[in-house]
């Protein structure tokens, strides 16, 4: 079989892909060698900015299938019928390290899911943890700076990591989670996913509910100890990518069962925890899990750069029946992501195949910008309203309105009766077996003992002690023992 012809980017045949054109044998290169110039220039431009967080990740296509009727809570069309399937794309990720970082590290994992629904793409951009370190987006850049590489040493510094946490008592719950047994998942397949934030669902009658999403892995939870992870990183730094890719190639399609906790909107004001505080969970005894459907991953992307690196998820991509809650962190994220995409991928990133709607067509009056490939024809007006056949608004709100009251200002999050920074961290600690507690303490002490300042260590220990006296005492003892070594 004859091979296809190698061409330049403009399609002209290439005569020689091994030798540059020179002035005479052994002479200097010729500027007229278009193929050489194009190859070198394109190579220089291969990289785009990596994601400022969650830079390292893996993606897969699949589908979501509804197994239970939730039409009493949401009018979302893709959840409207038992048995209905919607195509999905997911990107899993680690958070703190750069693109070349290792997979098997102690870090939350991203769980970013795109549903290509008939009413537009719905993005649920969550993590493998039900809570988060902070509850106000204004702290996010400082938080991330403290966890990523230090500008002077060029590496992650326990001094910075723990100094930030010393000033963020609300992080105690998430730190307890992260330093515990689930802190290093064995693979992306063996962990749960959570929407983490509270979202709002609205049904056909206009009734509003607050919901939390839980994707439970059907592969079972599997995690690594610190030692197992260190060994694995040495053997295969890309262990999560290897695992996901190979499982799907083998036809072992990973799946998750989606459950939601549902709170009628009227109950939010008097709930014992602030339901919009991302550092808190809703105990299942208060709001039990209700099954919705299953997510199955069955297809690997053909090209990592095109489909995974260029994937863009935004928490403000909602569909009718689903909307934001007043959670301040979520509200901050509604801005941050699409802004990041415009910087990282450009204003027309929604035209890329992985980001474009698949089950419907985007129709609007946004035009031009770099790389505009779908920009309208002679029949399409680029303004609205118009007297022609251009798309028009529906006058139907996507979700129910949120009630507001009070004054503008830089307010701290409202406190409900059981709200403090430590109660739920203590509950999580007390739930652990004696062995788990031992490993948790060892993990915390391993990091905290490397901090150079005693006052930073003390402040962190005070947070653990406020969660549970025994917890604080044991961390203090373990840190002291390591520092005396
Ligand atoms: C105010 C707080 C936060 C801000 C400002 C923020 C901002 C960002 C930004 C700018 C990116 C990179 C987006 C890109 O370049 O494509 C990102 C990625 C991501 N964030 Fe956040 N983030 C916040 C909190 C969270 C929380 C609470 C979660 C989970 C519950 C989360 C989950 C993710 C995930 C999964 C990704 C990777 C998405 C992907 O795979 O492309 N983030 N975040």
From TrEMBL:
<feature type="region of interest" description="Disordered">
    <location>
        <begin position="1"/>
        <end position="20"/>
    </location>
</feature>
<protein>
    <recommendedName>
        <fullName>Catalase</fullName>
        <ecNumber>1.11.1.6</ecNumber>
    </recommendedName>
</protein>
<dbReference type="InterPro" id="IPR040333">
    <property type="entry name" value="Catalase_3"/>
</dbReference>
<keyword id="KW-0408">Iron</keyword>
<dbReference type="InterPro" id="IPR024708">
    <property type="entry name" value="Catalase_AS"/>
</dbReference>
<dbReference type="InterPro" id="IPR011614">
    <property type="entry name" value="Catalase_core"/>
</dbReference>
<dbReference type="InterPro" id="IPR020835">
    <property type="entry name" value="Catalase_sf"/>
</dbReference>
<keyword id="KW-0479">Metal-binding</keyword>
<dbReference type="GO" id="GO:0004096">
    <property type="term" value="F:catalase activity"/>
</dbReference>
<keyword id="KW-0575">Peroxidase</keyword>
<dbReference type="Pfam" id="PF06628">
    <property type="entry name" value="Catalase-rel"/>
</dbReference>
<keyword id="KW-0349">Heme</keyword>
<keyword id="KW-0560">Oxidoreductase</keyword>
<dbReference type="InterPro" id="IPR002226">
    <property type="entry name" value="Catalase_haem_BS"/>
</dbReference>
<feature type="domain" description="Catalase core">
    <location>
        <begin position="7"/>
        <end position="392"/>
    </location>
</feature>
<dbReference type="InterPro" id="IPR018028">
    <property type="entry name" value="Catalase"/>
</dbReference>
<dbReference type="InterPro" id="IPR024711">
    <property type="entry name" value="Catalase_clade1/3"/>
</dbReference>
<comment type="similarity">
    <text>Belongs to the catalase family.</text>
</comment>
<keyword id="KW-0376">Hydrogen peroxide</keyword>
<dbReference type="Pfam" id="PF00199">
    <property type="entry name" value="Catalase"/>
</dbReference>
<dbReference type="InterPro" id="IPR010582">
    <property type="entry name" value="Catalase_immune_responsive"/>
</dbReference>
